[in-house]
Amino acid sequence: MHMGYPAFMDPADQSFDAIYWNAMPDDLRDDLLAFIESYKKPAGEDLDGACYWFDWETRRCKHHQYRPRVCRDFEIDSKGCQDWRQHYADRIISHPA
Ligand code: SF4
């Protein structure tokens, strides 16, 4: 809810996730790259918005099979997950305007 787009999927990122980047179909990779290249971070202390691949209707990842490593490692409802939710509870948007 606060990443903007799939983490470590920017080829310019030092921690670039090449394995899952290369696994994507070309059209999906091109679409994501265009989004990343035009992405503008929110000003000041505002969090990035929901991940570009997050589907607000189903509340699921639109491209789950191509999600990056960090998403695979982050266990839903784990202590880390709950800690993040609690820490950002007042700043995470529930739905775009
Ligand atoms: S699981 Fe999918 S929607 Fe969620 S942060 Fe990762 S790439 Fe984005």
Notes on the protein architecture:
The structure is a single chain. The chain has one domain (18-87). The chain has a two-stranded antiparallel ribbon with strand order 1-2. The chain is mainly alpha-helical and 97 residues long. 34% of the residues lie in helices and 4% in strands. The chain has helices spanning 18-23, 26-38, 69-73, 79-87; strands spanning 54-55, 60-61. It binds iron/sulfur cluster. Iron/sulfur cluster (SF4) binds at residues 3, 6, 51, 53-54, 61, 67, 71. Residues 3, 6, 51, 53-54, 61, 67, 71 line the site of iron/sulfur cluster.
Tags for this model:
single chain, 97 residues, mainly alpha, binds iron/sulfur cluster
* Assembly type: single chain
Radius of gyration: 14 Å
Structural class of the secondary structure composition? mainly alpha
Distance, first to last CA:
14 Å
Short structural description:
The protein is 34% helix and 4% strand.
SSE blueprint and pairings:
Blueprint: H1 18-23, H2 26-38, E1 54-55, E2 60-61, H3 69-73, H4 79-87
Antiparallel strand pairs: 1-2
The structure holds iron/sulfur cluster.
Iron/sulfur cluster (SF4) is lined by residues 3, 6, 51, 53-54, 61, 67, 71.
